[in-house]
Amino acid sequence: MELLGVRPGGLWVDGTVGAGGHAAEILRRSTPGGRLLGCDRDADALQAAAETLAPFGARARLLHSDYRALPDVLDGPADGILLDLGISSMQLDRPERGFALSSDGPLDMRMDQRGGVTAAEVVNRLPEAELADIIYRYGEERASRRIARRIVEARRRAPLRTTQELAAVVRGAASRPRGGRIDPATLTFQALRIHVNRELDRLSDALRALAACLAPNGRLAVIAFHSLEDREVKHTFRAQGAEGFEVLTKKPVRPGGAEAARNPRARSARLRVLRRREAA
């Protein structure tokens, strides 16, 4: 909130509103006149956000949309825009969404369930080489070719339908991470989720377009959770420095030990912030 510069009044945007936690805090800090536009690809998230933000009445407006579409719907320059990229706790905690390794559910992984391919369609239909490329590119998984081969072998016997079926196959092929802190299937699940939801597609273009929607002194804050996202954010923000913007975070802001202990899912978060200069 401090780096986003939230203050009374203004127009604020939460492009990944989720259950509305960040949005509610923005509305509290921008009282009395601050307005917020929140959007999300996930209909379940919007329903939860509507309940969270109901006490703020007409000051909050919600939109079922991808944050990439925000430049087309904003009704004026924004004083602050927040993106919290990747998967939400709410999605992880619902087995029927197919994101979690810890519980069994259908291999879906779509953030927007109105359309698009599911993870089951990806693992059961794509050629082995293409599967391996996805797992390597989006998961940075060194055992990607061996994992893809095992997936193809398994689907010849029977289609992979659930998260636990896929996780078992991947665990049998993946190298166990050093220190054993994460499940061996984590990187493959990350890669499939990014592919299914096209999470990195046009990310840099979207960041530049959103930065252009800022009012003078307005800020764009982005929280990323893995190196692929963070690298894209870092390079895009750095390039914007020559175009009337200032990077306020020379290094990403990371959670401290106490915060990571209190909220383990925050441990890999990286926050970067860009400010539009007065003369931009």
Number of helices: 12
The secondary-structure class comes to alpha/beta
* Average predicted confidence as pLDDT: 93
Major sheet, described briefly? 7 strands, mixed
- Termini separation: 23 Å
Q: Please give the number of β-strands.
A: 7
**Helical amount:** 25-40%
- What shape does the CA trace take? globular
What is the radius of gyration?
Answer: 20 Å
Strand portion: 15-25%
Across the major sheet, the strand order is 3-2-1-4-5-7-6
The low-pLDDT segments are none
Element-by-element helix/strand order: EHEHEHEHHHHHHHEHEHE
Report on the structure:
There is one protein chain. The chain is α/β, with parallel strands linked by helices and 280 residues long. It contains twelve helices and seven strands. It is globular, with a radius of gyration of 20 Å. The model has no long low-confidence stretch (mean pLDDT 93).
Top keywords for this entry?
single chain; 280 residues; alpha/beta; seven-stranded mixed sheet; 7 strands; globular
Topology:
Elements: E1 11-14, H1 21-29, E2 35-40, H2 43-53, E3 60-64, H3 70-73, E4 78-84, H4 89-92, H5 119-125, H6 128-139, H7 144-157, H8 163-171, H9 186-197, H10 203-211, E5 214-224, H11 227-240, E6 245-247, H12 257-262, E7 270-276
Parallel strand pairs: 1-2, 1-4, 2-3, 4-5
Antiparallel strand pairs: 5-7, 6-7
Q: What can be said about this structure in brief?
A:
It is built from 12 helices and 7 strands. With 280 residues, it is an alpha/beta fold.
